[in-house]
Design a protein that fits this description.
This protein is mainly β and about 350 residues long. The chain has 2 domains: about 150 residues, Jelly Rolls; about 180 residues, Jelly Rolls (Sandwich). The chain contains 5 helices and 23 strands. The N and C termini lie far apart (about 75 Å).
C-alpha cells in the first residue's frame, strides 16, 4: 500500500512541474536573473520567490525574445505586471469577445482582469522585453488544487474589465485623504512620471498614490522620497513586494529585539519583501527622487483580511498610538548618522532639517 502524502503544497508541486528555475532569496536583481524556456508561456521565465512573500503571492520573471509573443493565456488568479525593460503590447479579450490592446514600455504597470484571455507581444525586432508578474496563484492553487479548473475555467467575470479608457493609460482619481488617494485604471504607461499626492505623515515630504487595478483584490501603491530624505520606519504583515522605480538607495530591516539591521541596496530591477512584522525603513541616496512600487494581496477597496484592514488604518499612525509607524524622534539613534555617512559616499546632502533634529 502506497504511503499517504501529508502536508501537501499543491503550488510547490506545480512549480516543480513547470520546469523553469526557481530562486528563493530575500531579494533579487531581476534584470540579471537567469531564465530558461517556459513551455506554458512560450517565452523564457523563472520564479523569483522572496522570503517575505507570505502565503498568498508569488512572482515570476518573463522575457519575450525580439519579435516574439507568449502563448495565449487564461487563468483563475489575479496578476499585476511591472515592466522591467523593453517594449511590447498586450491584447486582452473580454467576456463580450471584444479585444482591447495597449502598448507598454519600461516602468509600465498593468493588471490582467480575472480569467480574461490575453497574450503578450514584443514589438521590438532587435531587443527582448522583460517583465515581472506578481500573482495570487499560491492561494488559488492551494485552495482548489485542480489545474484544469484554474487554467481552463470558462467563467467570465464581467465586471473586471472596467471602462475602455482604463486600457488607454487613462483612469479616474478617487480622493480620500493623504496616503489613501486612489487612481482607478488597468494600465499606467510610465510609473516614473505619474503624478503623486503629498503624504506628510509618512515623513520627509514624501508622496504616494494607491492603484485600484482591474477591480481586483491585488493591492498596488507607489511612493516617492525626495532627494536627501528617508521615510519613517514601520511594520506590517508579509507579502508587500517592493519594486524600486527611480533613483537608488537602501532599506534596513529588523525584528523587534534585534541588535543589528539587515540591509538591502536597491535600484530599478530589484525586488524584496519585508517578512511578517519586520520593521523596515527606506532611504534615498540618489540625486533624484526615489520611487518604488509595492504590490501585495488585499487592497484599500478589497482588503480581504483583517490584517490588511489594520495595515491601512495604521500605516501612518505611531506605534505609541496603536499604529504601525516609528516616528523620527523614536527611531534607533544609529539610523540617522548611518544615512549621513551613506550620503557622503554618494556626494549628496541631507535635506532632513525640517523633519529631524541633529541633522548635519
Amino acid at each position: 500500500m502506497a504511503e499517504t502524502r501529508l502536508l501537501i503544497d499543491p503550488y510547490a508541486d506545480w512549480v516543480k512541474e513547470e520546469g523553469i528555475p526557481v530562486y528563493e532569496e530575500f531579494g533579487f536583481d531581476l534584470l540579471r536573473m537567469d531564465l530558461k524556456p517556459w513551455a506554458r508561456m512560450g517565452a523564457n521565465g523563472a520564479f523569483a520567490l522572496v522570503s517575505g512573500r507570505g502565503d498568498y503571492l508569488d512572482t515570476f520573471v518573463l522575457e519575450i525574445p525580439a519579435g516574439g509573443s507568449t502563448e495565449p493565456q487564461r487563468h483563475l488568479f489575479e496578476e499585476v505586471v511591472y515592466v522591467l525593460d523593453g517594449h511590447g503590447s498586450t491584447t486582452i479579450e473580454g467576456s463580450d469577445g471584444v479585444k482591447r490592446s495597449f502598448e507598454w514600455g519600461p516602468k509600465s504597470l498593468f493588471a490582467i482582469p480575472l480569467n480574461s484571455k490575453y497574450r503578450h507581444f514584443n514589438t521590438s525586432g532587435t531587443k527582448p522585453s522583460r517583465f515581472v508578474s506578481t500573482t495570487n496563484l499560491p492561494m488559488i492553487m492551494k485552495l482548489f488544487h485542480d489545474y484544469d479548473f484554474i487554467f481552463n475555467n470558462p467563467y467570465n467575470f464581467v465586471g473586471r474589465m472596467g471602462d475602455n479608457k482604463y486600457f488607454e493609460g487613462e483612469g479616474e482619481f478617487i480622493p480620500h485623504r493623504p496616503g489613501r488617494h486612489m487612481w482607478e485604471t488597468n494600465f499606467v504607461p510610465d510609473l516614473s512620471t505619474f503624478e503623486l499626492k503629498e503624504w506628510k505623515d509618512r515623513g520627509a515630504g514624501g508622496s504616494n498614490i494607491m492603484f485600484a487595478l482591474a477591480q481586483g483584490t491585488m493591492h498596488a501603491h507607489m511612493s516617492e522620497m525626495p532627494v536627501g530624505t528617508y521615510k519613517k520606519g514601520h511594520r506590517h504583515g508579509a507579502d508587500f513586494h517592493i519594486f524600486p522605480v527611480t533613483g537608488h538607495g537602501y532599506s534596513i530591516l529588523w525584528f523587534e529585539g534585534d541588535k543589528d539591521f539587515k540591509r538591502f541596496d536597491w535600484q530599478h530591477g530589484s525586488v524584496y519583501a519585508p517578512e511578517d512584522m519586520m520593521f523596515h525603513q527606506h532611504f534615498n541616496t540618489s540625486p533624484e527622487p526615489a520611487r518604488y512600487l509595492a504590490v501585495a494581496f488585499g487592497g484599500l477597496r478589497y482588503p480581504f483580511s483583517q490584517d490588511k484592514v489594520k495595515v491601512f488604518l495604521g500605516m501612518d499612525v505611531s506605534l505609541k498610538n496603536g499604529g504601525k509607524q516609528i516616528e523620527y524622534e523614536d527611531q534607533d539613534p544609529r539610523i540617522h548618522p548611518m544615512y549621513l555617512e551613506e550620503l557622503t559616499k554618494h556626494g549628496a546632502q541631507a535635506r532632513m532639517n525640517d523633519f529631524i533634529t541633529n541633522n548635519r
